[in-house]
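Ticket #4471: structure export looks truncated?
Reporter: QA, pipeline team
Priority: medium

Steps to reproduce: submit the single chain below to the structure queue and open the exported record.
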Amino acid sequence: MTAIEDLKKIHVLQNMSESFLEQLIPHIETHNFNERDVIYEEGQKADRFFMLKRGKVLLEVEVSGLVIISLGSVKTGYLFGWSALIPDATYTTYAICSEPCEVLWISGREFLDILNRENNQAYIFMYNAFKILKGKLKRRTDQFLKVMSKHPDIQKLLGL
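Actual output as written to the record:
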């Protein structure tokens, strides 16, 4: 069984009340994965929200049958599978372990139900999540602009 101390190590949950974390515990499952194990696939129904207790997970998309792009990685203490918090959504990437991992997960629906009962805690969670997602968006935007600036056609347009 997951302990409150495990949940307090998840960055987005660090400022949450113990009573909120106690409500999560009965709904959380712990699973171990090996290197290269696939946790979920792009296009799969997004029904679980994940917390990485140990290891590293790559988030990848298949551009074609021959090309796979890594969009980023998830480090210990961070969340992934955000799509599970949107009803009827699917995962938009593959989540693949780049090393042995210990993963906590909860049903996205169950997590949302608990947040709906705990408005104060929901606000704290959303604020913490916003800070994390803002950082991810900035990194992706910076990556995109860097790639675009190196594209030969863009360089011609810019006179480089």
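Status: closed, not a bug. The export was complete when the record was re-opened. Leaving a note from the reviewer for reference: The first strand starts at residue 29 and ends at 33.
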